[in-house]
Amino acid sequence: MLKVGMIRCQQTESMCPGTSDFKVASKGLGAFEETGPVEIIGFNSCGGCPGKNAVPRAKEMVRRGAESIVFVSCMGRGTPIGYACPHFESIKEAVTRAVGPEIRIFDYSH
Ligand code: SF4
Fold it and tell me: Are 97 and 54 a contacting pair, CB within 8 Å?
């Protein structure tokens, strides 16, 4: 089972408990239809705008066993409030570079 570390938008964590992310991970739905169910080894936020804590947090999740980093849908798709992260591409690029090519990156969860 693929081990994933999830990164979310800090702006939405005050109201969204990430229910859909846990559901698609455990059932192999959404972004995980190809991999099947995945094991969440960490669920953390970007640290707040402009998201500079995403890099050290992603690296720490990899150190703790994550084989993949998942940017959950509040970041790239703006769910559930309909406002995507304006820094998403920069964050994704920085994290992808920091964790290296062996770590699979998902840019949404559901
Ligand atoms: S940087 Fe993006 S993902 Fe992070 S809190 Fe701000 S809007 Fe949300």
Answer: no
